[in-house]
Design a protein that fits this description.
Blueprint: H1 3-11, E1 14-18, H2 31-45, E2 50-53, H3 66-80, E3 87-89, H4 95-108, E4 112-116, H5 125-138, E5 142-147, H6 149-152, H7 158-167, E6 171-176, H8 181-191, E7 197-199, H9 203-213, E8 217-220, H10 227-238, H11 242-265, H12 283-294, H13 310-323
Parallel strand pairs: 1-2, 1-8, 3-4, 4-5, 5-6, 6-7
Helix pairs in contact: 2-3, 4-5, 5-7, 7-8, 9-10, 11-13, 12-13
Length: 331
Amino acid sequence: MKPSDLRSFIAKGVIQIVMVTPFKDNEEVDFEGLKENTQFLVEKVRGKPFILTPTGSTGEFYTLSDEEWRKVIATVIDIASGKVPIVVGCSHSGAVPAVQRAKYAQDLGADGVMIVLPYYHVPNEEGLYMFYKKIAESVDIGLAVYNNPDVSKIYMKPHVLKRLVESVNNIIFVKENTPYPPMLYQQIKAVGDKVPIIEGRGEWWWLATAAFLGAKGFTSGWANFMPGISLEILYTGLNRDLNKMRQYLEYLDPYWSFIDKMNKKYGPSTTVLPHPYIDQYMEYSVIKNTMNLLGLRGGRMRLPLTDISKEDIEELKDIVFNKLKLSPIKR
């Protein structure tokens, strides 16, 4: 799909499913499990407003070797290409390796690539602008800017984002992760007429804030196992149906509260960032174990992130089947 076509597709409202990377108990990548998960998602979301992103944050991309990363994206593209738009996570803290990854994804048939803000060394604004400009000009497919201060300790402000969007023509969307609604609104005002902005903090934030401010969709890890419900939530927000939005917030509360409970139980966090930045990521283990309970292949975590206990999984089981009322997935 051409960048302009993909950008138009996203601008109508979209969910970006950031796919998990399943690991076996011995920490090897479960490629058969990845195939099953991809087939499940293709069956459920084909022809609907979704894009698939392997090797993003929920996919624990930073824990993968180069060889594993290549095989993961090849697996997903082989199954989903031409059926669901694929925007591959190609993040790296350096421009040269990020370009190499982006070109590799393009050669395999990806529709676009997503790059998080460069982490480790803190660049100045010119360096940040040139980082993305170099990547954008190195490929013919679309580029998504992942503006995530939680994981990078830097931030692309509206005037820099506007300069970037006006200087290259293949930015397909901005995945905006600011925890501050006024800043999200400033980003939408700066570039929203040219490039769609989707929020990267999931269903709850979409319903509570982002849909009202003009975001065009959201990123979801939960859609790995409940894409149909996530789609209903997307449309509820796009239609600004206040009653249904409130109902969905209440529906999601037990799951969100359990994640918050796990974050506190397995704390304290080692972050130095102030609240409300994300300070724990037990959510990923909760997502993976939800998939395991439902019959998908979530697998386990890779260090440095850790898993929840068997006792916690029993509590999660009650939430999944009795409160969310999800049904086992028959494969």
